[in-house]
Write a structure and sequence with these properties.
The complex is a heterodimer of chains A (199) and B (96).
Chain A: H1 16-27, H2 31-42, H3 45-61, H4 72-88, H5 100-108, H6 110-114, H7 123-128, H8 131-139, H9 143-154, H10 159-166, H11 170-194
Helix pairs in contact in A: 2-3, 2-4, 3-4, 4-10, 8-11, 9-11, 10-11
Chain B: H1 12-15, H2 26-37, H3 43-52, H4 57-75, H5 84-95
Helix pairs in contact in B: 2-3, 2-4
The chains are: A mainly alpha (199), B mainly alpha (96).
InterPro entries (chain A): RNA_pol_sigma-70-like, RNA_pol_sigma-70_dom, RNA_pol_sigma70_r2, RNA_pol_sigma70_r4_t2, RNA_pol_sigma_r2, RNA_pol_sigma_r3/r4-like, WH-like_DNA-bd_sf
Domain RNA polymerase sigma factor 70 region 4 type (chain A): 133-182
Domain RNA polymerase sigma-70 region (chain A): 30-93
């Protein structure tokens, strides 16, 4: 935790009153987004509850490293993501223990990037899908790909904010997002076909 | 009727851009389309988009699809409120 947050570990003077004030004003308004992020990462209600609680308690404990006026939501998401990786991912119930590095290497290989990658999916078919079907397609992605889509498309973070939350360069954000969306299209295509929307 | 007062109309053919049915820059165009939809495109990418997107059928279709998927993710997926019990526990713990 301390290592992951090191770049923001500048000391800001907080009185006890200010700690509570900043916590309530800057952090609490994001609790619904944090809960949804936690749930989509862990895919488990109890784990999501614990993850949100742990994140907020850490945020309070390390509040002196939060600089007022900076993006509190991104700061909180970064703590949650780090807690997830350190504490929850190991016991994640996700069946696919995908070696992420391997996936990314495969997708980043010259062969893959040269391929004119297309999924035969029409916008009309996507429009027919209901929220649960879209959510299921998203949930079927390996967690690292799922994460970039959640951050970008559901939570509306910029690439720069995502780079900070995930501790990766912006170029990697772009390419990971691109590949995540291609994978998502494949999943959506399967749903659309199984529902008969794409015939 | 004075013919000189009527606005000469351009032949239909000349107004229509020539539509491309195949995109030879598919991978690059997909990156630009996504950057545009994410509001992260560079000026050069925006220029390229403005100049070319209405002439390429595969790119127009891709734009529609990507936008539709993004909108579905943004608007259709249910957002749950954080359970009150979590809020209560957090507040209790930071006050103890």
């Amino acid at each position: 935790m301390l290592v992951a947050m090191s770049e923001t570990l500048t000391t800001n003077e907080y009185t006890d009153d200010l700690r509570y004030e900043v916590f309530n004003r800057e952090f609490m308004p994001h609790i619904d987004s944090m809960y949804n992020f936690a749930f989509r990462l862990t895919m488990d209600e109890d784990d999501a509850n614990d993850l949100v609680q742990d994140t907020y308690l850490k945020a309070f404990r390390f509040i002196s490293s939060f600089e007022q006026g900076t993006n509190a939501k991104a700061w909180l998401f970064r703590i949650l993501k780090n807690s997830f990786i350190n504490d929850y991912r190991k016991k994640s119930k996700e069946p696919s223990k995908v070696d992420y590095q391997e996936v990314e290497t495969t997708y980043n290989s010259e062969e893959a990037s040269d391929t004119t990658y297309t999924v035969d999916l029409r916008a009309d078919a996507v429009q027919e899908l209901i929220g649960d079907e879209v959510a299921n397609a998203l949930n079927a992605l390996p967690v690292d790909f799922r994460t970039v889509i959640i951050l970008c498309d559901i939570e509306g973070f910029t690439y720069e904010e995502m780079a900070k939350i995930l501790d990766i360069p912006i170029g990697t954000v772009r390419s990971r997002l691109h590949r995540a969306r291609n994978l998502l299209k494949e999943k959506l295509k399967s749903y659309a076909s199984s529902m008969g929307y794409d015939s | 009727m004075n013919a000189s007062l009527t606005t000469p109309s351009m032949p239909e053919e000349a107004q229509k851009p020539i539509m491309k049915h195949n995109c030879e820059h598919r991978a690059e165009c997909m990156k630009i389309i996504q950057a545009i939809l994410d509001d992260e495109a560079t000026e050069a990418e925006k220029d390229h988009f403005r100049e070319n997107m209405d002439k390429c059928i595969p790119c127009i279709e891709s734009y529609r699809l990507e936008k539709c998927i993004k909108d579905s993710l943004t608007l259709k997926i249910e957002k749950k409120p954080c359970p009150q019990s979590i809020l209560d526990t957090i507040i209790k713990k930071i006050n103890s």
